[in-house]
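Lecture 7 notes: from sequence to structure.

We start with a single chain of 544 residues. Read the sequence below before looking at the structure.
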Amino acid sequence: MALDGIMLRSVTRHLKDLEGGRIGKIQNLSDEEILLHIHTKTGLKRLVINVHSNTNRVYLAAFVPEIQPEPSGFVMFLRKHFSQGIITSVSQAGYDRILVMKVQAMNELGDLRQLTLYLELMGKYANLIAVNEEGVIMDALKRIPVFENSRRLIHPGARYELPSQPEKQDPSGPVSIDESQPLTDQISGFSPLLSGEAERRLHEGTTWEEFWHSLEASDKLYWYDDRHFHIIPLSGMNTDPRVYDLMEGLGQLYRQREEKSRHKEQFGDLIRTVEKEKKKQQKKLPRLQASLEAAKDHDKYREYGDLLFAWQGSLKQEKKAVVQDFVTGEDVTIPLDEKYSIRDNANRYYAKYHKMKRSLDALQEQIRICKEDLVYFEQMEEQLKHCSYEDAQEIRQELENGRWLLPKKGARRRKGKSRPHVLEIPYEEGVIFVGRNNLQNSWLTHKMARRSDLWFHVKGYHGSHVILQSDQPTEGQIRMAAMLAAWFSKGRESSSVPVDYTQVSQLKKVPGSKAGFVTMKSYRTIYIDPDPRLVEEILRRRKQ
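Now the structure, written as tokens:
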């Protein structure tokens, strides 16, 4: 779900703190995302503006996201006209999804100008538009000519006009609700998600004034999943939400979305390669298992050969032969190839018997390898969901070494062996190391870890190897290491996740297995509930 007018109203209240602030650095986060550094009386604020058609939003970021090295033309325009400008007001255009930021800035001659930034968060028409004091568009992040949108011309030199909106009731005043129509058609600023919640509460006896007061009083974000979140709890959901302060919650929500989107852009070839190899093994395994079941029936063909030799004097070269079994006395029908004699048909059945008998061991070995490869690529698929850029480069190297992926043209091979980019977290007089791909897992477990260190891995899921180095491990350290093992695994969204842990001395590498595969001689199990806010706070502090 995108921001609706009511949620933007709550966001705008938080952005009022920017009034009086001075705009400093202006940077690109992506082609459609801009970061403004704003110096206010209470300190530096980082305003993220995104006008992507699917994920458009505005919020205050707690830390600096990754910056594009080269500024776009529009960012250069903003630097020229808005850098060092003072924000005089931040408001919302009615209940529309339009944020209006008025800025007082000096031009090249030193004259003060009253400029306005209109941030339109309206789906595929999302845009950031700069307008001068005369109401004329100076420039826009997305220039929209007439042939793309006949109703509005968004282009330098055109007069800026707010998008036309149908007449709807003001939600803050007395409202008259027609139950035959959806609230989205009657009340300004309401999305389908919020309308559904309002209808449920009104049906349960809540008055409109009480419902509106709950919206006005909220400064929290209730986050259920990527599509269901709002500033009030949603009674129609069957799960409990994660509750954040509004700006913190928006930052967490959209940071995860951006990571997924950025992963697809940066690591798309890795994701496709791993998915292709996984599907290949998934298709191959049933065929091998079917061949194994058929091969187990090899004794039948030896019996066919024995019976044909025994009865060959009374048989003719036909499509089939019906003979009596020596043991049961029952008739047995044996298919024949008319091109060959009875003796040759018998010898062909003997040859088939010996071939299928020999294939049993080979098929069982192929099935074992196929299952290992399937687990391997499922694990790698999970690793790609949570990896950083450095982690992905190591996964790329691993795929290239295994000949599953061809090296990129012009890419330089790394000389020598460098230390993998493991996650290192100091915690309570100890250090926790987290491996987020197979190379890191193998290096941590077999090269870096001491025999007395504790090793953690989630039970029943694909996940990271976690090493706890501490002279005297405390319960808090053990629980945090288990928490990280659960978080960097497929079980991060589950509760009571079982995590096995043992000393490194109790681990054994499986001969001939792929990187990261080990067995444990003895171990203990701890059950942990992954706490997203705790883990994200630890990772944020480490990044800072």
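The CA atoms of residues 176 and 400 lie 65 Å apart. Keep this in mind for problem set 3.
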